Amino acid sequence: QVHLVESGGDLVQLGGFLTLTCVGSGFDFSQTPMYWHRQAPGKEREMVAVIVGTGDSTIYPSAVKDRFSVSRDNNANTVYLQMNALRSEDTAVYFCNTWVDEQSFWGQGTQVTVAS
Q: How far is CA 67 from CA 22, 60, 70, 115, in A?
């Protein structure tokens, strides 16, 4: 059974930093790309980071490029999202996501709130 659990969300000050964690189980973690998405109130869910199974390649949209960094520790079945220079528009619930056997799986989400 594929299972993803995010943690690390918090209230942070404008311009601050935070690292989120997602632990996966029930699938071949090291062979599986991992994604981070976020959803702010009243807005569509948007992808904010992608990392390949080996960790050697990442993708970010322009909204977070140069501020967010995704990494992974396959020995621990864990993916991280490092967030820096946080802005009010970064306030959202952050989810980790993966695709296994052509199905999408999501964690429960973790709340990040940037105070202004």
A: 19, 10, 10, 17
CA 84 from chain center: how many Å? 13
Region of 108 (left: φ > 0; alpha: ψ -120 to 50; beta: rest) is alpha
Instruction: Name 70's Cβ contacts closer than 8 Å, sequence gap at least 6.
Output: 34, 36, 49, 50, 51, 58, 60, 79, 80, 81, 82
SS (H, E, C) 97-112: EEEECCEEEECCCEEE
Q: What is the pLDDT of residues 18-75, one digit of tens each?
A: 999 999 999 999 999 999 999 999 999 999 999 999 999 999 999 999 999 999 999 9
Q: Which two tokens stand for residue 86?
A: 């946080």
DSSP 29: G
- Residues 20/8, Cβ–Cβ less than 8 Å: yes
